[in-house]
């Protein structure tokens, strides 16, 4: 790869890394501030908090893999590679399922439907979310008990050769792709079904609003569209993340560093950009995030700090 392209790509990855940690970190800090003030968190705040934490972990795992491939990778071998594999799979697994839980939350909380099964689930929203997340744990044994890397944890010891490390990392990426393909079908399908049902609900709602003077300014219509934007961004970004894993795997098979680094850049977009969209789509989260940034700015300038309500902090 050309040095100029490599430098530009490396800079872009570092920008995505910082942006992803910042956007997800703001979600964590915003919900932590609400918990300190109110001593409790709503269901959606809990989902957003756990989602942001899982994405921060995922971002660090992908960044670590980037450093392995294009940095000092001599320290990664055997058991350390296996731990990295497990950490990436876990963070990716929970990041996807928490995002799916958010999609289902928007569907049950916003959509209007007279189906009995829908009303039953709507009345038991918390139990549905908790039950789905607990059910996702069923897939973990199948993900973690892959034996391809388990057979090689101490084979090379401290004298790991360059070829053996490349072979291990190729198998590592292959396992990531396999598990993401098999075990992401169900949560991604649930998110897609939630999206389609929300579109159906919005379409029915707009039909009812055609004879109303409120029209497109109706709060329910705005809530539908906001949820749809968030779900569309999730589906598109996760699809790009999944395809980027495929691109990286093919690139490593053909030893194409340029295509591989493009895949890494695309992978980092999913946990970074979607969290930023979540902040923009949540008025309370947006307000608290802006206050945190202004708080940090005031700290740096030594000015008085204001609460989110505008009152100074002594």
From TrEMBL:
- Note the CDD domains from the entry: 7tm_TAS2R13
Per the record, membrane topology reads: Multi-pass membrane protein
Q: Entry's InterPro entries?
A: TAS2R
Tell me which stretches of the chain form a coiled coil.
none
* Keyword line: G-protein coupled receptor, Glycoprotein, Membrane, Receptor, Sensory transduction, Taste, Transducer, Transmembrane, Transmembrane helix
Segments spanning the bilayer are 12-35, 47-70, 82-108, 128-145, 175-203, 230-252, 258-280
Q: Which Pfam families match?
A: TAS2R
The protein's name is Taste receptor type 2
Query: Could you read off the lineage of the organism from its UniProt record?
Result: Eukaryota, Metazoa, Chordata, Craniata, Vertebrata
């Amino acid at each position: 790869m050309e040095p100029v392209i490599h430098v530009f790509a490396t800079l872009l990855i570092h920008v995505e890394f910082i942006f992803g940690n910042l956007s997800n970190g703001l979600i964590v800090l915003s919900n932590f501030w609400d918990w300190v003030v109110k001593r409790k968190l709503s269901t959606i705040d809990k989902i957003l908090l756990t989602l942001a934490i899982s994405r921060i972990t995922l971002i660090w795992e992908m960044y670590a893999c980037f450093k392995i491939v294009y940095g000092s990778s001599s320290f990664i071998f055997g058991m350390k590679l296996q731990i990295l594999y497990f950490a990436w799979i876990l963070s990716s697994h929970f990041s996807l399922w928490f995002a799916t839980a958010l999609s289902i939350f928007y569907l049950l909380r916003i959509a209007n439907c007279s189906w009995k099964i829908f009303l039953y689930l709507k009345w038991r929203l918390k139990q549905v979310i908790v039950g789905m997340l607990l059910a996702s744990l069923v897939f973990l044994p199948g993900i973690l008990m892959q034996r391809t890397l388990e057979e090689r944890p101490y084979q090379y010891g401290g004298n790991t050769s360059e070829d053996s490390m490349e072979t291990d990392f190729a198998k590592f990426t292959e396992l990531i792709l396999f598990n993401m393909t098999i075990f992401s079908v169900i949560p991604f399908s649930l998110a897609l079904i939630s999206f389609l049902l929300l579109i159906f609900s919005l379409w029915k709602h707009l039909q009812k609003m055609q004879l109303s003077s409120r029209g497109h300014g109706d709060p329910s219509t705005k809530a539908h569209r906001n949820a749809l934007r968030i779900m569309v961004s999730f589906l598109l970004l996760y699809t790009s993340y999944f395809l980027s894993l495929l691109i990286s795997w093919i690139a490593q098979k053909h030893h194409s560093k340029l295509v591989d680094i493009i895949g890494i850049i695309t992978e980092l977009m999913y946990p970074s950009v979607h969290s930023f969209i979540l902040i923009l789509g949540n008025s309370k989260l947006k307000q608290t995030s802006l206050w945190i940034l202004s708080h940090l700015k005031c700290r740096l300038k030594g000015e008085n700090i204001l609460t989110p309500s505008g009152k100074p902090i002594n």
